[in-house]
Write a structure and sequence with these properties.
InterPro entries: Dual-sp_phosphatase_cat-dom, Prot-tyrosine_phosphatase-like, Tyr_Pase_dom. By secondary structure, the protein is of the alpha/beta class. It contains 9 helices and 5 strands. Strand 1 and strand 2 form a beta hairpin.
Length: 204
C-alpha cells in the first residue's frame, strides 16, 4: 500500500475525488478570481449540481451564485479543532446530501478547506445513511482521496447510531471497527496538512 508520506498532498488538495457515481469530495475553491473560475468550471464540467461547504472559516456562496447560479450551495459551517463533531451538523449535512441525491441527475461535492477531515467525515456519514458498511465506506473514501484522514468518523458513528436506534453494544462495536480501520490504514495527517499549508503559502 502506498504510504501517506509517499504522496504529494498539495496535488490532491483541490482535486475533485469521486467516492460514488454521484458523490465527490474536494478541498476548497481558490480565493484568486482566475483560479476560482477555472476550478468551478471543472466542477461544472464534471456535472456537479450541488455544493456542500462545511468550512466554518469561509463561504463562497455569493461567488458561486454569481458565476453559476444554477448550482445549489449549502453552507454548513463547523470547526476543525479535533475532538468530535456535533450530531446536529451531521444530521443537517446528510439530510442536505440525501435530498440532493434524490434527484437522479444530481451530483454533489462536499468540501472543506483541505479535504482532509471535515468533508471526508461528512461523506462517511452520508455513506452510512445510504446503507454502506462502515469499513466499505472508509475504504471508498480513502481509495478516492488518499489524503483523507476522516478523523471525525467516530462522531459520525455516534450520530448514525442514535439516528438508527442502535444499542450501546452495536455503537461500541462500530466505533471499534473505525479505530481498527484507522490503525490498519494510518494517515500522517499533520504531515499532510503541513505540506498543503506550504503550497498555500507559496501561492499567496
Amino acid at each position: 500500500m502506498t504510504k501517506t508520506t509517499e504522496l504529494r498532498p498539495a496535488s490532491w488538495w483541490r482535486r475533485l475525488c469521486q467516492v460514488t457515481d454521484r458523490l465527490f469530495i474536494c478541498g476548497d475553491l481558490p480565493h484568486d478570481p482566475d483560479g476560482f473560475r477555472r476550478m468551478l468550471r471543472e466542477w461544472v464540467d464534471a456535472g456537479i449540481t450541488h455544493i456542500v461547504d462545511v468550512r466554518g472559516e469561509w463561504s463562497d456562496e455569493s461567488r458561486v451564485a454569481d458565476k453559476h447560479p444554477h448550482i445549489s450551495y449549502a453552507w454548513l459551517p463547523t470547526h476543525d479543532n479535533g475532538g468530535g463533531q456535533d450530531a446536529d451538523w451531521f444530521e443537517q449535512g446528510v439530510e442536505t446530501i440525501c435530498d440532493a441525491l434524490a434527484d437522479p441527475g444530481a451530483r454533489v461535492v462536499i468540501h472543506c478547506h483541505m479535504g482532509v477531515n471535515r468533508a471526508p467525515s461528512m461523506a462517511f456519514a452520508a455513506l452510512l445513511e445510504l446503507g454502506i458498511d462502515v469499513g466499505d465506506g472508509l475504504a471508498a473514501i480513502r481509495a478516492a482521496r488518499p489524503i483523507a484522514a476522516i478523523l471525525y468518523a467516530e462522531s459520525a458513528i455516534d450520530w448514525f447510531a442514535e439516528r438508527s436506534g442502535w444499542t450501546a453494544s452495536q455503537t461500541g462495536e462500530a466505533r471499534m471497527r473505525v479505530r481498527a480501520w484507522h490503525a490498519e490504514n494510518p494517515s500522517d495527517v499533520w504531515w499532510v496538512i503541513s505540506r498543503i499549508r506550504m503550497a498555500e503559502a507559496e501561492a499567496a
